[in-house]
Design brief:
heterodimer, A: 206 residues, 11 helices, 66% helix, B: 102 residues, mainly alpha, 6 helices, elongated
Chain lengths: 206, 102
């Protein structure tokens, strides 16, 4: 049975903690929340706690929810803040990272002054796609490279590419503009791609 | 198409295209950004991207790499794990019991 979770009647049922409504919403999003928490590098137990505390905050605040954003955006917004709290506690996340400037570090290494791939394709251009594919199918390689990403890059990349979330919703969850999201995604992809190439394949000519 | 031929075509395009025209064409740097975030491209940008990938091997390879990478990530995070499914079911039950009126 598919229920429209943005429907005011459904929202009212949630506000009065109707068991069916609560059960529907929890079952609908818990798996995604759990996977998203694991995708951000949390262990099973931590992911568990984060999901439970996300739901606790959600049900505490649901009476004030006016339905201006999609309920999924609202829930994921809470999850993102909970994950940030865990990172802060683990000192893996700092405010400077949150307020980072979008410098052109990545581009500066990859492209020359004319906007072409650096050094006539010899050093920085993408390597043979088949070798890359073999490396990128190795999950330990992927996990290692994911761990090297900054947290906001990782979250933006995960929401966009794995969860297939709308750009507008990701911007609401992360509290950033559409332009910033474009930069975050571009940098995340470049860094992941470069990491897979550099660490595990070595640089090669196309 | 063989990669060496692609590289040759790319160098040919770069060297034979008049400078004033080359300045109007998208740079690899722009194209890499478009490939990474193709959602907000205009129609003309999409057309330019399509032609650029035909004559530019690094950008073509870059596009393929990103596709492989996305598929790998999706596989990694969406693979079916029965133990996790059972765990999430238990988690759901506990959340529902805690936050609903019986």
């Amino acid at each position: 049975m598919d229920i429209n979770v943005s429907d005011p009647v459904f929202l009212n049922s949630l506000k009065v903690k109707n068991r069916e409504a609560v059960s529907y919403i929890v079952k609908k999003y818990s798996k995604q929340l759990y996977n998203a928490a694991v995708g951000q590098g949390l262990g099973g137990d931590q992911a568990d706690e984060v999901v439970q505390s996300t739901w606790a905050s959600f049900f505490e605040g649901v009476e004030r929810f006016e339905g201006r954003s999609h309920i999924r955006t609202y829930v994921f917004g809470i999850l993102y803040n909970k994950i940030r709290e865990v990172w802060r506690y683990q000192k893996k996340f700092t405010d400077t990272e949150d307020a980072e400037g979008f410098d052109d570090l990545v581009d500066g290494q990859m492209f020359d002054n004319n906007g072409l791939w650096g050094k006539e394709f010899s050093g920085y251009a993408p390597v043979d796609p088949e070798a890359f594919m073999t490396a990128s199918e190795n999950m330990s390689i992927i996990n290692g490279c994911l761990d090297g990403l900054k947290k906001k890059h990782r979250m933006a990349f995960y929401l966009k590419e794995v969860e297939g979330e709308d750009s507008e919703e990701i911007c609401n969850i992360l509290g950033i503009t559409r332009t910033n999201l474009g930069v975050l995604l571009y940098r995340a992809k470049q860094l992941l791609r470069k990491c897979i190439e550099d660490k595990y394949l070595g640089k090669a000519m196309v | 198409m063989n990669m060496k031929i692609r590289v040759f075509i790319h160098l040919l395009v770069l060297n034979l295209t008049p400078k004033f025209l080359l300045r109007r064409l998208a740079k690899c740097q722009d194209v890499a950004r478009w490939i990474a975030d193709s959602e907000k491209l205009s129609f003309s940008q999409r057309v330019e991207l399509f032609f650029h990938k035909l004559y530019c091997p690094p950008c073509h390879v870059y596009d393929q790499q990103l596709k492989h990478m996305h598929n790998s990530f999706i596989k990694l995070f969406k693979k079916h794990r029965p133990d996790v499914e059972t765990h999430i079911d238990r988690l759901c039950e506990s959340v529902i019991d805690q936050h609903s009126k019986k």
